[in-house]
Amino acid sequence: MTDLPTYVLERTFDAPRALVWRTWTEAKHLARWYGPNVETIVHKLDVQPGGLWLNEMKWGDHSHFQRVEYTEVIQPERLVWLHAVCDADWNITANPMMPNWPRILLTTVTFKEENGKTELRLTWVPHQASDAEVSCFSDAIAGMDKGWASGMQLLAELLAELQAS
Question: What is the distance between the alpha carbons of residues 8 and 90, in angstroms, rounded to a whole number?
């Protein structure tokens, strides 16, 4: 497949790029906005090529684990990583709620500053995915904004709070 379905999220934040970058690269900030309506536990965050972000989203007695491996880090402009669902031992696994969900998503986040505001752009593309995984991802794109929008609202609130203090 040459043309893979791509999810694109674009937001502009009323905050300088260096601060927005910190909210994506410091565990104390990431845990505040990533995974809305759940408890986000950052088990490891090593933001450098080859570094890992091991993340647990917890609600009640349930947990959802994610493993991120950074492939490119250009501070404060760009983050690229391989994003995967994993088990509690951080082994990449199929998504238990969506078995045909791509095991790995190539994620690219760019940060561009203009007039004191930051334009953020995130893309998700299935990585080394089967046809069934590509199809599942493509079918889910329309609903992805809902979850990301909640996180982006929390991120905007966090940025306002950080700038006020």
Answer: 27
Closest CA to 23 of 165, 164, 152: 152
C-alpha gyration radius of the chain: 16
108-117: average pLDDT: 97
Strand pairing report for 52-59 and 104-114 = unpaired
Report, as an integer, the average pLDDT of 3-22: 97
Superfamily of domain 7-16+24-164, CATH level 4:
START domain (3.30.530.20)
For residue 1, is pLDDT > 50? no
- Specify the pTM: 0.94
**Per-domain residue ranges for the chain?**
7-16+24-164
